[in-house]
Amino acid sequence: MISNLKDGWDNREPREKKILILGGVALSVIIVFQWLLLPVIHYFHDLKSQVEHQTTLLTWMKQAESKINPGNNASIQQPVSDKTLLNILSISLNEQGIQPTQVRQDGKNNVNINFHRVVFNELLLWLHQLLSEYSVTIEQLTLSQTDTPGIVQGEIIIGQVLT
Q1: Which whole number is the average pLDDT over 33-57?
Q2: What CA–CA distances, in Å, run from 135 to 48, 123, 155?
Q3: What is the maximum span of the chain, computed from C-alpha positions, in angstroms?
């Protein structure tokens, strides 16, 4: 079989040999381009469009964050010592108009707050304000609804963030 191909090649005119060689080279270039380079080009094009999409998404998320938390980047949380945590919570509860049934120091770094009838939205606003202003965490939050809509009872354990 190979000898038949070699004999066929030897019987060709020099012009035909040049045309076959150029056709083979052109076919090789097309195969390399189609099977090797084109997938790589498509891959990099897809990566570029993903980066553009992710950049657009990140820009939108930053704008949305600034609308949701307008002063979040500018505010710095104040550190809380174990002596002042109880005082800070008592004062902020009174300022917000939340009347707990009991506020007590629970261990070295925690304060336990019990309440019976508190407006749920006011409680959430107080917690949000507290967490954004001071370096504290909510260790435990137990809430249950009462017969009145929007009014809850429960217990909160707030602890200071140890640095």
Answers
A1: 93
A2: 41, 18, 20
A3: 109
